[in-house]
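Hello again,

I reread your note about wanting to compare the complex against the isolated chains. To keep things tidy I'm splitting this into two emails, and this first one only covers the full assembly. Below are the input lines as submitted, including protein chains and any nucleic acid or small-molecule components. They are followed by the predicted structure of everything together. The single-chain runs will come separately.
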Amino acid sequence: MKTNKAYIKLTEKFSADNYLPLPVVLTRGKGVWVWDVEGKKYLDMLSAYSALNQGHCHPRIVKALNNQAKKITLTSRAFHNEQMGLFLKKLCTLTGYEKALPMNSGAEAVETAIKVARKWGYYKKRVKKNHAEIIVCENNFHGRTTTIVGFSSESQYKNGFGPFAPGFKMIPYNSPQALKRTINENTVGFLVEPIQGEGGVIIPDKGYLKECYNICKKNKVLFIADEIQTGLGRAGRLFACEYENVRPDITIIGKALSGGFYPVSAILCDDHVMDVLHPGDHGSTFGGNPLASTIGIAALEVIVKEKLAQRAYELGNWFMKELRKIKSPSIKDVRGKGLLIGVELTKKARKYCEQLMKQGILVKETHEMVVRFAPPLVIQKRELKWALTRIKKVISS
Ligand SMILES: *Cc1c(COP(=O)(O)O)cnc(C)c1O
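Full-complex prediction:
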């Protein structure tokens, strides 16, 4: 059994049908490159939705993982482990927050932020019991739990999965006026992506985040940024909110926090928010485990040592400029920040992704008409040039 086809057939026989992957079976990855089971090499320009900012199998993270895997991997939070404190210290020092709460998947970190915001609302803002409201944006993506899909505007994410948790209000993205109008005495938080990644790489107007932040401040509402995809260097800064000098009350991170090795997520906030949690209020069997923590430390070290945010900023600007030079009636828009770039097409993007795969480039459409280019941030300019010639060819054909 050596072919892509054979593995796909096997997988489809036993797997739930909840994904439609491109027909390629990957077996090895190194930096920005991956290989399929037939030996064909591809440039990974998806980076597992930005979980692989550090590139595939980064040697520094492999080493950390191997060393720790031989020592101890899981203690549960019933006991302390020596790595978690070191990890959280590193995270807080790097990001300038007083506290961090480690979880596993991104969705779990979003759920954690929701719980903390609500409890903060009841205990610090004195919102009436069970009346807390969180404002979210249309076209959002925050994960797949029942609570989270309940406040999605994407019908497919919700259909068949109700009933949903109450306590969320939806407003249009990119409208501070709508936020102002919708906030009331029960509002505890405003949950927003600084750039809507899954939503099609949607970039709000300049000043949007700052204005929303100020509105939140004025009304005693927590500004909660979901930086799971945009953060940790992807958008050309450590956090995309930095472009507007916004320091969210809660920042949610995941994905690249482990460099693609392991699900590691966290929320970051200051003590006056985090101190609503007491022993027993919230937890996770695997959250903050020693293996995840050492991986997290190494993943953060790579982001800093290899200046990944700066690389994303410089290479992203250059790459976007080059993409804009492609003259084709199929291109409607090229937009992005750092190395989170969306090319909006006039036709369905899936076909282009299939063609790019044949050319040795792996990307995925997002929201039907948009191809997202988000390679690992360790990519070299010559590799981007290599990609450009192929992208040009496919889009012009
Ligand atoms: C990927 C993503 C999530 C969910 O993360 P999972 O690890 O898949 O649960 C949440 N928010 C944003 C913005 C994301 O990109």
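For quick reference: The longest strand covers residues 331-337.

B.
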